[in-house]
Each structure stands twice: as structure tokens, then as C-alpha cells.
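Figure caption, in words: inputs first, then the predicted bound structure.
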Amino acid sequence: MSNKPKKGIPRLLELAGEKRTLLVWSGISSTASVFLMLVPYVSVYFVMAELLKHASDISAVDAAFIIRWAVWGAAGMALGYVLMYIGGMCSHVAAFRILYGIRVKLSDHIGALPLGYFNKHATGKIKKVIEHDVEKIELFIAHQFPDLINTAVMIAAITVTMFSLDMWLALACVIPILIGFACQYSMMAGSKAQAGLKEYFDALENINASSIQYVRGMPSIKIFGQTVRSFRKFYDDMLRYRDFSVKYTDSFQNGYVSFKVMMLSLATFVLPVGLFFISGDPDHMAFAVTLMFFLVLAPGISTPIFKLGSFASTLTVIVEGVNRMDQIFQEQAIVEPESGQKPSAYDIGFREVSFSYGGEGGAEVLKGISFTAPQGQITALVGPSGSGKSTIAQLIPRFWDVQKGGITIGGTDIRDMRSNELMECLSFVFQDTFLFSDTLYNNILAGRPTAAKEEVYAAARAAQCHEFIERLPKGYDTLIGEGGVYLSGGEEQRVSVARAILKNSPILILDEATAYADPENEYQMQLALRELVKGKTVLIIAHRLTTICEADQIIVLKEGQIDDRGTHDELIARGGLYQKMWDAHTATACWEMDLRREEEALER
Ligand SMILES: Nc1ncnc2c1ncn2[C@@H]1O[C@H](COP(=O)(O)OP(=O)(O)OP(=O)(O)O)[C@@H](O)[C@H]1O
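Bound structure (adenosine-5'-triphosphate present):
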């Protein structure tokens, strides 16, 4: 058996899993309903035949026979509708269950991906796949699947009937249909069309991603008096989508027109063939009746065929949507060890770590980094912008896995720890704090969902946010974000410190934690952090060197390598890069002081 990965509809059915059974029932009900719907036509045929047989003496008509067929016809139609309804119900239930199943699978998989994946991929793209592409599947399974079966069975039944009546007339009908299909298929299924569809999906994803950026970047756009036109990315993506859609639709013109012309002129092909054969048939009358039947049936078959054509275009969209889902499923999830090891201590060790964002062979942003952040001590990372400080911090929670060397916690390689155990050891306070659209209380509680009320308040007090929370009209029940209040950058950071205090993990990583702090806020933040770092292994990244000069160890980075290390005094004494940074920092502080003095003088 081949293990080739499935694509398109077979892949969709594979994703549907055991919910396929409902789809099978939907298919069976729809097929049965088609045949039952044909019963009234059969009954009309027999009733007509009986009436014609006794046209000269109508009293000889078998009334019971006619009533029987009338009842059969009505029953067939009624049962046909019931089965059609059951088929529709089954497909709807199956669709929503499949949708739910696929979304859960996608969410589970996304949850298992390394955090770096979310930096690399725009949220708009992921959102489009989970919402838009999965939703299209519902449309297909719930509505079009039973219709598709109906249409296919009807076309098959009509074709069989045609061939059983007359092969030549049937061929005169079927050959133009096949040519019409070939014209359309060559346009829609060719490699150019497939590439076009991919490009169409890319354009749609780009619009999704850049529209989110546009909305998020609205304050900057407004402040700088710009318009949508000046937000080039969104504007360009919209233009690209418009131009591409017009070009893409145009490319189907010839194929679709040829297909439609063929379908609507089937009688033009049937009539000459019929006239050719009628003269050679001894039973002219019977052949004439058959020819009449074909001339009536030919336009009738075009309706289900048009329907089938529209399904073909939906199918290509579904297939591309399933491909997009598979691209997410193919993303390598974090490799979890069978049985995770627990660290016995909480020092962090970097051993000859080299890392490139581009994977193996890419440009290295960290080159052979080795250091130990001892347990219970504060280690600071400093260095010019782009030297790799944030990358080091993000490698510890496995945003990405290192390509060379290894990172350990208490001597245990982080790749040998289960992710939940690794995360339990760590707390983060990032520069950009993320608060959920929820109450302030729940935002702090997120640090340890099992914490008691008093513990949440204690954490808020320690993080210097209790006072400002109490001042809000609804206190801890105040909603944050949409429909609620917005906090200042410094307040948000202190809430995230409260969250970290509540989590009380043995290792703490602070990335630019005082970035938003004004003098008042910075003082509050320092008080909050002092509480937070007590007895923890702390790795801190800060541009304000004054905040880290007390650190037990300072590691100076330059272009992805360790340039120097030591305490503040040792590094100053050595007079290297750190001393230059310190001089620059103190010069800026003096400059700020001078400005303040000038302002004060002016005020006086
Ligand atoms: N997601 C990413 N993909 C590719 N390259 C990245 C990514 N993040 C950072 N880099 C690159 O890696 C290098 C190190 O970046 P990093 O953010 O670690 O530096 P940093 O010292 O923290 O800088 P800063 O002080 O400005 O925040 C930079 O050259 C940066 O351009």
C-alpha cells in the first residue's frame, strides 16, 4: 500500500475521521431520494400508457391500476422529500462535527508549535485558515455534498436511460458534453490555474495580515497624518488582490464560454444525427418518439451539468483550503520527551550555543555562547541593539530550538523536559505586555489559576498595583481592553509583574521590563521587581544600565558573541565595551538632568 500523503477531498475525509459515517448516510439518503423522486414520472408514464391503450373505450380503463400508480407516485415523492431532508440533516450535523474536529485538531497542533512560529507567521494568516478556510468546508459538506450526490446520480441515471434507448443519439449528446468539460477542465485544472489559485489564496492571506496591521497601527497612521494610501503594505495588497482577481477571472473566460455554448446547444448535435438515422430505421414512428425524447431531455441534462461545473470550482477552493491547513499541520511541533526529566536545581546553563533564525546553514545571530546564570542570583545581559540579548532570553522557553550546543536548567537539557514542566519553572515579564480582554483579577490570576483571592491581592500589593486597581470604579472586576478600561504602559507592566509574582516560579526572565517607566513609574516598578526577584534565578535584559549595575553578573554581548563578563565594577575597571556603554548612558542621564534644570530655571 502506498503511504503517499492524501490531498484534496480524500485528505478532507481523512481529517473528518469517524464523522465520515454520517456523510455516508447523507450520501445514501440523497441517492435514494433521487430514485424516489423519479417514481412520479414513472407513474405518469404508466397512467398515460393505460389511458392511451383504452383511448377508444375509456370505460375499459382499469381504475384500480390508475389509483395504485397515483398513490405510488405521491408516496414516492413524499418519501423522496423525507429522505432528502434526512440527507440534509445528516450532512449538516456531519459538517458541524467535522468543523469542530478540524478546529480542535488545528488548535491543538498550533498549541504544540514552538512559540517562535507566531513571530514568523502573521496572525492574520493563521486566523484566515482557522476561520475562513475551515468555514468553506462547512458550506461544502452541509450544503453541496448532498446536492453533489443528487446531481451525479441524476446525470448517471439520465445517461443510462439515453444509452438504453439509442446509442447514436446518446453519443451525439454525450460527446459535446465531454468536449465542453474538457475545455473548462483545461482552464481550471491546468498547472497555470492551480498556481493562480495558490496566488489568489496568498493575496487573500496577505490582505488579512496587512489589514490587522493597519488597524493595529492606526494610532501611528493618524498621528503622522497618513491615509490608507500611505500605509503602503495594506494599499499594495489591496491593489494586488484587485488586479489579480480580475486577471484570474478573465483567464477562465474562453473555457467557460465554450463549455456553456456546448451545453446549451446539445439539440443542435442531436437533431442532425437523428435525421440521418431516421431514414434508415424501418420503424420511423418509434424512432421519431425516441428522437423527441432526446430533444426534450438534452436541455434537461444541462441543468445538473452546470451545477456539477459550479461544484468543480468550489472543490478547487476546498482543496486549496485543505492544503493551507496541511501546511500548518506539517509545521514541526515541539519534540516532547517520552518521560520528562525534572531539574534538581534552577541555574541556567548555555553551553556553546549557536543559533540562526533561518535554521541550519542560516546566518548565525548567536555564535558559541557559553555562560551560567547561577541559582538565586541576578544575571544581566547588555549589549548594543541587535547583539542577540532577546534571542538568548527567547531560547530558554524554547521559542526555537538551538542548532548547536545546548541549554540546561539545573543540569537538565531543556529538550529533555516536558514543555509544561519547563514553563512551570519560568516566568516572563516582556516589554510588550499582553493583557487578556478580561477582568484585572483574572488577568493576575492567569499566573496561577488555582490561587486564592488573598494570594491574588497580595501579589497585586507586592507589584505596586493594588492602589491604582482599588481606585478604579469596579476595582479588581474592571474589564480590560475592548469595552473596558485601558491601562498605561507602566501599569500594564506592573500587572504582568503581579502575574509573575503569583506564579512564583524559580526562574524569572525580564526583557526590557522597565521600558515604559517614567521616573514615578520606574520607582514603583523597581519596588515591584525587588519583591519579584527575591531568591530567584533572574536573567534580565535592560537598556538602562542603572537598573542592572547591582546585578551579580553582567554579560556583555557584541554581534552574537560574549564580549566580556563580570560585575559592574570589574567591567568598568577593564574599560571595554561596557564602560563605553556606561559613559554613554551616564552622559544621557546628565543631559536629561541639564534639560530639567533648564526647564526649572525657565519656570522660575
Ligand atoms: N524573528 C526573527 N527572525 C529573524 N531574525 C531575527 C528575528 N528576531 C531577531 N532577529 C535578528 O537577530 C539579531 C539579534 O536580535 P535580538 O532581538 O536578539 O537583539 P537584541 O540585542 O535583543 O536587540 P534590541 O536590544 O534592539 O532588542 C538581530 O540581527 C535581529 O535582526
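The longest helix spans residues 63-112.
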